[in-house]
Write a structure and sequence with these properties.
- With 268 residues, this protein is an alpha+beta fold.
- Helix content is 31%, strand content 22%.
- A nine-stranded mixed sheet has the order 3-2-1-4-5-9-8-7-6, with helices on both faces.
- β7 and β8 form a beta hairpin.
C-alpha cells in the first residue's frame, strides 16, 4: 500500500459510517470495489513514518488554506492579524483489540486539537492517551505548542501579534502563561475560572457599555495570583440565556465583551 492510497483510504474510513476497521474493509470491497488486505491496512496504522506524513500534511493544509477562506471573525477588525485558536481534546471509543491499562480496563483514545476561530480549520496537535495509557491534555499542549511558537508558523510578517488560545479550565497553568508574557508576550489565553481560585483583586477597569460587543459585561477586574503575572477576570451575563460566566485571561487589550464572545465561540 503506497502513501497516497494510505491517505485516501484513511479519509474514506473517517467519512464512512463503518462501525469498525474490518467493517470498513468490507465496505471498501463491496461499495468502492477496492480490495484491501487486512494486514496491509492495519499494519500501516502503526507506522511512525506515516504518522509523520499525516501530521505534516495536516499542518501544510492549514497553513496553505487559512488565508483563502472567509474570516469568521471579520466583524471584529481588532482581531485582524491575531491568530485565535480553540484548544480541546476529543475522545473516541477504544478499539476492541486495544490493550488494557494496569487495572485491566480499556482506555478511550484522546487526541488534542486546535480549531482556528478565524477559518474553522482543525489542527491535530497529537495523541493524549489510548492503547492502555492514561495521560493529560496540558502536558501534550505544552510539548507541542512551544516548538510551534518558535517555528513562526502561526504568525508571519511585520507587526505580528501574539496568538490567543481559548480552552477550558484544564488549560490553566499560571506559570506557563506568565512565562509566555515575560518572554515577549508570545502567547495568551482565555478560559473559565475555577471555583477554588483565590485571586487578589487589584482594580476594576472601565468599559464602554454603549458598544454592542460589551452587552452582558458585569465587571472587568485586574487580578493577581501568587507567582503569576497580572491578569483579568471578566464577569459576564449572557443576554440571551441569562447564564452567568466568569472568564480568566491574560489578554489585556481587547474589549471585555469580546473576551466572553471568543470563549463562547469555541463551542461553535
Amino acid at each position: 500500500m503506497d502513501d497516497f492510497r494510505f491517505l485516501r483510504l484513511g479519509i474514506c474510513r473517517v467519512l464512512s459510517q463503518a462501525a469498525s476497521g474490518r467493517d470498513f474493509l468490507q465496505m471498501a470491497r463491496e461499495v468502492l470495489g477496492e480490495e484491501v488486505a487486512r494486514a496491509s491496512f492495519f499494519d500501516s496504522l502503526h507506522c511512525r513514518r506515516r504518522s509523520k506524513i499525516l501530521a505534516d500534511l495536516n499542518a501544510e493544509l492549514v497553513i496553505r488554506n487559512r488565508s483563502g477562506l472567509e474570516d469568521l471573525l471579520a466583524q471584529f477588525p481588532e482581531l485582524q492579524g491575531i491568530p485565535v485558536y480553540a484548544v480541546d481534546g476529543h475522545h473516541i471509543d477504544h478499539a476492541v483489540h486495544s490493550p488494557n491499562d494496569h487495572k485491566g480496563e480499556k482506555v478511550s483514545a484522546n487526541n488534542l486539537y486546535l480549531l482556528c476561530l478565524h477559518s474553522g480549520l482543525l489542527w491535530n496537535l497529537g495523541a493524549v492517551q489510548g492503547d492502555g495509557r492514561h495521560s493529560h491534555e496540558m502536558p501534550v499542549f505544552l510539548n507541542q505548542i512551544v516548538p510551534w511558537l518558535l517555528s513562526g508558523k502561526m504568525v508571519k510578517g511585520k507587526g505580528k501579534r501574539a496568538p490567543i488560545f481559548v480552552g477550558d479550565p484544564a488549560f490553566v497553568d499560571k506559570v506557563f502563561w506568565t512565562r509566555m508574557v515575560l518572554e515577549g508576550n508570545r502567547a495568551r489565553f482565555i478560559t473559565r475560572t475555577k471555583s477554588n481560585m483565590k485571586p487578589m483583586i487589584y482594580a476594576s477597569y472601565g468599559w464602554d457599555p454603549k458598544k454592542l460587543v460589551n452587552e452582558g459585561v458585569v465587571a472587568d477586574l485586574s487580578v493577581g495570583f501568587d507567582g503569576a503575572t497580572t491578569m483579568r477576570i471578566i464577569r459576564y451575563r449572557d443576554p440571551e440565556s441569562r447564564i452567568d460566566y466568569e472568564f480568566l485571561t491574560s489578554v489585556m487589550d481587547l474589549e471585555p465583551g469580546l473576551i466572553a464572545l471568543l470563549y463562547l465561540t469555541r463551542w461553535r
